[in-house]
Structure formats: C-alpha cells, structure tokens
C-alpha cells in the first residue's frame, strides 16, 4: 500500500516556477474565458483597485482606473509604476494596504488556493482573507470574486477527502486546492461581515485547461466535460 508522506509545498515557488506556462494558458486555451471576464470587470472596476492573487494577469482596462495595487504571494523583484504598485503578500494578511482605501477588490481564481493543513483551518483562512478585503474597502466599496464553483455534492466529497487529497498533492509536490460551492463562498462572505451580494455565470468558451494552476498547458478539455462553473460574485461593504 502507498504511504503518502506529508510535506508542505511552497505555493509562491510553485507559481513562480510555472509563470510562463501559466501566461500561455491565459492567452491560449483559456483566452475566451478571460475575455468574457474582462467584459464583466470593465463594467464594474473603478477608482483604486486591489487585485489579490494577481499573478501578473491584468485582464481589464487599466486606463480607466486611478491605481491598481497588485498583490501576490509569488511576486519577486517586481518594479512598481505610476499606475501599478506590486506587493508581495499573503491574501490573509494585507497589513501593507490601508484600511478603507480601496474602491474595488478583485480576486480571480484565488479562493481555491487559500488553503491550510485541514478543512477547518482552510475555511477560516478564506474567511480571514475576506475579512481583510472588508477592512481595506471604502464604505460602499465592492469585492469581486471570479471563481470556479462546484456543486455542493462535489464540495461535500472534497471536504470528506481533504486530508487524503492534501497528502497526495504534497507527495507529488503540488499545492493543495479546495473548490467551494456558491453557498460555501457566500457563508464565508457573511462570516467576514458582508451583508449583500449578487452573482452571475461567466461563459467559459468551448475549451478549458482544467489544471491551469497545477499543471498548466498539459490538458485541454471541452467545456461540457468540465465539472465546475465560472462565477462572478460581487459583495458590497455597506455603509457602517
Ligand atoms: C490561479 S492563479 C490566478 C492568477 C490571476 N489572478 C488569474 O486570474 O489568472 C492564483 C494566483 O494566486 C497567488 N496566490 C496563491 N495563494 C496566495 C495567497 N495566499 N496570497 C496571495 N496570493 C496567492 C498565486 O501565486 C497565483 O499567482
């Protein structure tokens, strides 16, 4: 019987190592998806935008924005410009970003990477990240989450098999991922203080790279076989 040795995988190192393959997928197989997301974001982004888990992907019109603070755990030696400030940080601890300073916070395909050693700690990590978003938003500011969401039954099995999946992915030197259902994300938004939200589906296009983050560029799947939906969830910080 196989025994999986538990080990920590450095997610920053993982994304740094695969940065160029990742960009190829964004501009290749998953191009249609990103174009559809851009259309949605361009209608809603304004003012000062905090982009968490940015990964050097700016799929929105920068010229319409005052300033972008791009945060990523994997950034190394990035040079900020007048328009973009690059910050290397963990999404759970944004102490470098001032309270009440952002009009919009956007996170695209980040939530499933906010993980920890157990399902319980992972859930509280996601809530901690959403609390940080709430803190940095101006009153009436909006958090916009673009994420692949799964059916609650899939989430149930993910939770059940959390430890095994964690150990297996560590064993093959890949970072853990955990997808949420829409309900799962919304309950963590509530826990972080958000009281109102809207959500809508984003069309993915005909083809999708299902493992864009773990093995970028290795697999191309017809959309109808992909077991998740891309959603844009928008949550507002109501005036206190
Ligand atoms: C799947 S990529 C998404 C990149 C880009 N936002 C996009 O839409 O293609 C996830 C990004 O989140 C970053 N990341 C993962 N965990 C993070 C964390 N705890 N804090 C900040 N960034 C994180 C990774 O380094 C990676 O660049």
Plain-language structure description:
The chain is α/β, with parallel strands linked by helices and 240 residues long. It has a single domain (11-236), classed as Vaccinia Virus protein VP39 (Rossmann fold). It has seven helices and nine strands, in the order αααββββαβαααββββ. The protein has helices spanning 11-17, 19-27, 31-44, 119-136, 152-160, 162-171, 182-191; strands at 48-52, 67-72, 84-88, 102-108, 137-149, 196-202, 207-208, 221-222, 229-236. Strands 3-2-1-4-5-9-6 form a seven-stranded mixed sheet, sandwiched between helices. The protein has a two-stranded antiparallel sheet with strand order 7-8. The radius of gyration is 17 Å and the shape is globular. 34% of the residues are buried. Mean pLDDT is 93; it is low at 1-7.
CATH architecture: 3-Layer(aba) Sandwich
**SSE run:** HHHEEEEHEHHHEEEE
Number of domains: 1
Arrangement of strands in the largest sheet: 3-2-1-4-5-9-6
Q: What is the count of β-strands?
A: 9
């Amino acid at each position: 019987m196989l025994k999986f040795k538990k080990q920590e995988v450095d997610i920053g190192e993982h994304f740094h190592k695969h940065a160029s393959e990742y960009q190829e997928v964004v501009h290749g197989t998953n191009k249609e998806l990103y174009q559809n997301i851009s259309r949605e974001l361009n209608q809603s982004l304004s003012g000062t935008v905090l982009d968490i888990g940015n990964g050097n992907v700016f799929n929105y019109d920068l010229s319409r924005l005052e300033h972008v603070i791009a945060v990523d755990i994997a950034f190394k030696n990035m040079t900020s410009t007048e328009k973009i400030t690059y910050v290397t940080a963990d999404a759970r601890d944004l102490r470098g970003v001032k309270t009440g300073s952002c009009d919009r916070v956007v996170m695209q395909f980040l939530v499933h990477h906010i993980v920890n050693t157990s399902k319980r700690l992972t859930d509280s990590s996601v809530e901690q990240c959403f609390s940080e978003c709430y803190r940095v938003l101006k009153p009436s500011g909006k958090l916009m989450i673009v994420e692949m969401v799964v059916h609650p039954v899939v989430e149930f099995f993910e939770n059940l098999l959390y430890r095994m999946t964690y150990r297996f992915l560590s064993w093959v030197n890949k970072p853990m991922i955990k997808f949420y259902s829409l309900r799962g994300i919304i309950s963590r938004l509530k826990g972080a203080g958000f009281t109102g939200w809207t959500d809508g589906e984003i069309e993915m296009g005909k083809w999708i790279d299902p493992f864009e983050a773990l093995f970028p560029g290795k697999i191309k799947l017809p959309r109808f076989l992909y077991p998740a939906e891309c959603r844009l969830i928008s949550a507002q910080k109501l005036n206190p």
